[in-house]
Amino acid sequence: MAESMRGLHRTHRCGELSAANAGEMVTVMGWVQKNRNKGGLVFVDVRDRSGIIQVVFEEGKADADLIAKAAGLRSEYVVAVVGKVEKRSGAVNEHISTGEIEVIPSELRVLSESATPPFPIEENSRTKEELRLKYRYLDLRRPDLQRNMMMRSQVATLTRQFLADEGFLEIETPILGKSTPEGARDYLVPSRVHPGSFYGLPQSPQLFKQLLMCSGYDRYFQIAKCFRDEDLRADRQPEFTQIDMELSFVDVDDVIDVNERLLAKLFRDVLGVEVSLPIPRMTWQEAMDRYGSDKPDTRFGMELTDVTETVKDFDFVVFKGAVENGGSVRGINVKGQGGMPRKKIDKLVSFAKDYGAKGLAYIAIQEDGSFKSSFAKFMTEEQSKNLIDAMAGEAGDLLLFAADKNKVVWDVLGALRVELAKQLELLDKNEYSFVWITEFPLLEWSEEQNRYTAMHHPFTMPMEEDLQYLDSDPGRVRAKAYDITLNGNEIGGGSIRIFQNEIQEKMFEVLGFTKEQAHSQFGFLLDAFRYGVPPHAGLAYGLDRMVMLMAKEDSIRDVIAFPKIKDASCLMTDAPGEVDEKQLLELGLALAEEDTEDAEGTEEG
């Protein structure tokens, strides 16, 4: 039977008590973690978000009714305990912060009873994620998840404080906006008042934050909800959170400076980690050539080596074909893995094929200096020696090669070096390796659309010295764009924005927009740019991803209170769900009837 907490006032959270409180009368409230009945001696662990305190009901110190009541407590009952803090008479528990003390109770109230939970509320739960997400309100009671949520809150609070001190204003931008179909798919919201018309949920506050610069607000930030209807994976959600900012009258170095100081503060105050400033910078081209990735993990070596010149005269058709088609041959040296079993190498070949490779060539150098190779018969002795030298190969090394168009080679070896680092346990989650990536290509060619698309977005400023190539060689133009990466993850990105009308018009032209199309999609921004626009720039962090890395988790689901699963549904609330036909009628919508014959055997419904 549940009791009232009337007349009681919580004096401390459970984990806030220490030996300094010995002798004090306290009132704690929380959930029963564990109940151990030793017959006349009952130990109850009471838990809240701050930690655990042990409450000891003992004959001679508590009356029989109180001990009997304590013996009846079950896991996850909510209780209030009034008692005296004493130093432990038994052994100290070094695993909890309150391990030196216990509470000797004078009063116990059961505020709420609990059914038996579908899984134990414990750290590092082995319960399947699907079950935990269905009962997420229970899952969120786990101390490790609670620490993640508290860390996320701390990151948001410190960010607000830091940016406010730097002269940023926190300004909210609309959630209901206009659909702009560049980029990922928009989530659409039908309008009841304007039948047949739809709002688009923002993929980012990009246009609005640029308008705020036009409005003279100088420095803006927002911890903003964003929405993208795209295929999900471990580090993606249909709704996610950005730390979003925009600054006027700045260039690249100004944006990087304020953000380096923000990152240094967050990592110092939250983790006690000193970020060495300035953070290293690397151009996009250098990152691709050295790491095969524009978000390189620099915690380990295994860098790519371009051996195109070395192998161009080999008779090996795979190498020859790649070189003749304007591609390249590159390799990585996996130190000390020359004795890797053939089966394991075959698995690496399969892995490489998943990233677009037709295969993977290798040279395994034995301890005696001899070697086995998948293409030995296509090399002379001198050629093989030259290739091993070019790769800095030594006895016991495994050399892996990819040959194709540059993009494929980069994708394959970039992913392969990270996979090998995982297998060889070279990745230390306690190490935080930041790199700024700069000078991205402004544009990338889309085979699907048969045109150039913006690598970031259509408002990214080209580097002044490359403006001359916009007509003659658009693929050569570099952008004033920058990403901040951490341990092989992009945690934030931004750019200097175009603020001159003629450059913006040229950019739309290169992207294949007519003036009418550009105006239809972005008219309000282009109109605003007619009335005096300051030079401006911005950056946005993925808050979820940054906290995931700070918390040393592998999925952003572990740092989001109520996440969706891979098909964008919520197991707890069953969203998305069907709605009443009356609601559809009010919105002027009708569901298309499914053709059952056509639908059979297809994956889409």
**Can you count the helices?**
18
Q: Main β-sheet, in a few words?
A: 8 strands, mixed
The end-to-end distance, rounded to whole angstroms, is 49 Å
Helical proportion, percent range: 25-40%
Number of distinct beta strands: 22
Explained architecture:
By secondary structure, the chain is of the alpha+beta class. The protein is built from 18 helices and 22 strands. An eight-stranded mixed sheet has the order 6-9-10-22-21-20-17-11, with helices on both faces. β18 and β19 form a beta hairpin. The longest helix is centred in the first third of the chain and has 23 residues, at 143-165. The radius of gyration is 30 Å and the shape is globular. The chain starts with 24 loop residues before the first strand and ends in a 6-residue tail after the last helix. The model is unreliable at 596-605 (pLDDT under 50). One of its GO terms (cellular component) is cytoplasm. L-aspartate binds at residues 182, 228, 456, 497. Keywords: Aminoacyl-tRNA synthetase, ATP-binding, Cytoplasm, Ligase, Nucleotide-binding, Protein biosynthesis. Belongs to the class-II aminoacyl-tRNA synthetase family. Type 1 subfamily.
How would you concisely characterize the structure shown here?
The protein has 605 residues and is an alpha+beta fold. It has 18 helices and 22 strands.
Question: What labels would you give this structure?
Answer:
605 residues; alpha+beta; eight-stranded mixed sheet; five-stranded antiparallel sheet; globular; disordered C terminus
